[in-house]
Amino acid sequence: MSIAATNEAVAAPEAGSLQRKISWTGAFWIASGVPALVLFSIGAIGATVGAPAWFVWILSIIFGFIQAFSYAEIAGLFPHKSGGASVYGAIAWVRYGKLLAPFSVWCNWLAWSPVLSIGSGLAAGYVLSILFAPDAAINTWQLTLVDLGWLKAGLALRINATFVLGAVLLLIAFAIQHRGISQTAKVQVILGVVALLPLILIGLVPLFTGDVLAAHLGPFAPLAKDEAGRVIAGEWNMAGLTLMAGGLFIAAWSTYGFETAVCYTREFRDPKKDTFKAILYSGLLCIFVFTIVPISFQGVLGLGQLVTPAVVDASGTVTTPAVYDGILSADIYSGMGVASAMAGMLKGGPLVHNIIVVMLILALMLAIITSMAGSSRTLYQASVDGWLPKYLSHVNENGAPTRAMWTDLGFNLILLMMSDYVFILAISNVCYILFNFLNLNSAWMHRIDRPAWDRPFKAPIWLIGMGTVLAYVNLFLLGMGADIWGAGTLVTGLIVSAAIIPVFLFRHYVTDKGQFPAAMMEDMHLKAEPGAGTRAGMLPYLALVLGAVVIIVARSIAVY
């Protein structure tokens, strides 16, 4: 698209489209829900990796911050578009293969959308924990609909109190979103101040009171178990490195998430200035939270002490795993006990404990609204661009993509019924890593194919290079560490990501008769520079082949 045409689109949005009503501060507050994602997997990572878990979070947020500069650059190329980084990166890939563009956007949506179900499920669990005893009837009743044990042991679709209350919380988030981006940003400011406060307190107070014990942060060795099932310090052999890869893999789902700040480029008053500021300051906030909270959480709780020894049969096989307290306890791994454990870190008595839990529930609501705002706009823009069904391109009178939001809601009500949220997160993250790989590579592809385009923010070439290297590091972590979270996680994630193929083929060849919408054709740069749009030649294809090789090699050397 020509620069003049882009400026016209920025200045005069069409009726019935997304509206330019926020500045970078609005996007910052909407993205301020990302730090709450630490609640989703802090327990699972600690219980899986062991003592080095705090370092996993720090290294992962550094990776995410470096990658963000590539996303800031490509977002600035398309100030008239919404939907986030995947949409901007997909335009680089679309002329090298029609399926690559929708695949990237689909993977991004599948990564972000489950925040709704996992977040509402955890929030519902927190509510039930402060209102009822663990053995109360409301916490124990369950109606199993479908047994999914063939996919993962113990997995099922069920209806229980967590599902019912979680669905109510999702509807509340939907009602807030329905009023448009401007009103959503205002609500997020209020929620952001209230919800980020407990995370900051949980991170800082134990450091000042001396409750963070250095002994709990070491020894710097991966978790292992002896023959009796007792937890011991492991070794940095291939099994230990596989655990570390699994931790970095799952942490990426949370730490990379502040890239959602560029989802709202189409709704910025001044996209040239606002896009970079939004992602920069969102990234700095995340560096702070994802560093101090894991250190304090692990430093106070420790891995835990043995409560009940493992039960071993006559042949020496562990039939019932050992039970621990601390980070290794089952409710910390699932996430349901994280809020209570964090509240206990502040030592304020029952009243303060409940107040902190309520504030953490608001933090999860913040994350849910952040996800719904970003993922629904990804669906909307993918529909406008001709990749997903046409009905998703509708917006209401407030400029909210309501049909995309309803689709998000319905999808997540199904996920909310699943009995294992950590497994959902792991499957979702397979898709997220694939999206990140395509998107980070799109930065250098845009540089080659669109050298003359205006770049409001142009990242130093070394940062683009580091982003490209991290694209392959992420794939290595995917191949090596995904199945730590359940046998078949990697394969299931790949199958789910491939589900876009029939969806796109129907939209493109049946609905659109093999032609992209006119606006998308211009974005592909076919009109502005005929014949000059694929300067990268074979390099994108070589990048894909190398990526596949990295995953295969990483999977082959993993030891579980």
From TrEMBL:
Q: Where does the record say this protein resides?
A: Cell membrane
* Membrane topology of the entry: Multi-pass membrane protein
Does Ligase appear among the keywords?
A: no
The top of its lineage is: Bacteria, Pseudomonadati, Pseudomonadota, Alphaproteobacteria, Hyphomicrobiales
Q: What is its main location?
A: membrane
Q: What is this protein called?
A: APC family permease
Pfam families hit by this protein: AA_permease_2 (PF13520)
Keywords noted in UniProt: Cell membrane, Membrane, Transmembrane, Transmembrane helix
Transmembrane segment boundaries? 27-48, 54-72, 109-133, 153-176, 188-208, 238-258, 279-301, 321-339, 351-373, 413-438, 459-478, 484-506, 539-558
